[in-house]
Amino acid sequence: MIMQRLSTHHQVLALTALLAGLASTSAWAKDSKNDLSYPRIEPCSQRYQTVATPQPDLSAEDAQEGVRQGFGTKRSWGVDDNVELLDASATGLDQPGLRVHYPKGTSSPGDTEQGGAGFYSEPDVLDGAERACLTYRVRFEPGFNFVKGGKLPGLYGGEAPSGGDEVNGENGFSMRFMWRAAGQGELYEYVVSKDKKYGASVGRGLWSFPTGEWITIEQELVLNTPGEKDGLARVWINGVPVLEQSEIVYRTTDEVTIDGLMFSTFFGGHGKDWRTPRDQYADFAAFRFYIPST
């Protein structure tokens, strides 16, 4: 069971953040041009069936090969330089994980030296999926300095537009997460209905990432019917419902579906104000994909 409920203390913090966010729903709904609330149903990992549980292959000769074999990826960046494989004793879980390094002075891949890493995992069992659920766990090192923000993994489809790419309804979408200043969390979206050059910031501050402990991120996507604005995104943090977004346009053709995991993590943003002031790391583990059973 990878879902770990919050302690009483953390439940209070999460619910406080939730209520604060709901109080300002109209403000950030206007910014994103989408309706926001919070999920009123159980987490998607409890409603869908588990179909893939990728993890790094510790028998591989190096981290890049371990990721390639464990996640079935052929596209990656930064893995050979900035990723190390963790065994179960290092994660403190019952499974291995990844430690991603962000060297001092680095931010996004297009800005300066590469810090962090990225790859795509496309399990065959998601082929044609229009609804899917992703869970994984992240642990920022104790005292992690979040600076202005950085990227975290999420689901994607098609060409996984990012980095200022246009989203035209036929080339896919990406629904990553971000950490922001002081560890505030958000969804970071490249979808047809966004109104910004870069990704849309949705639900910022509805939860916060702690440091020095594991936290479970759970994301559910329901793609829109082509020609309709009926797409959904839902988020739970350690099982606590924090965000539901409606009226999302992911696509204009049913050829765009949910393809898999866009593992993407780095500081930035662009520019020196986003760069990490020191060497830092974050750990990732317990990736799970789910789809409806019928």
Automatic annotation (TrEMBL):
It comes from the Bacteria. Residues 95-287 form the Polysaccharide lyase domain. Residues 96-117 are annotated as: Disordered. InterPro entries: Polysacc_lyase_14 (IPR048958). Pfam families: Polysacc_lyase_14. Residues 1-29 form the signal peptide. Keywords: Signal. PANTHER family: DISAGGREGATASE RELATED REPEAT PROTEIN (PTHR40124:SF1), PTHR40124. This is Polysaccharide lyase 14 domain-containing protein. It comes from Halomonas aestuarii.
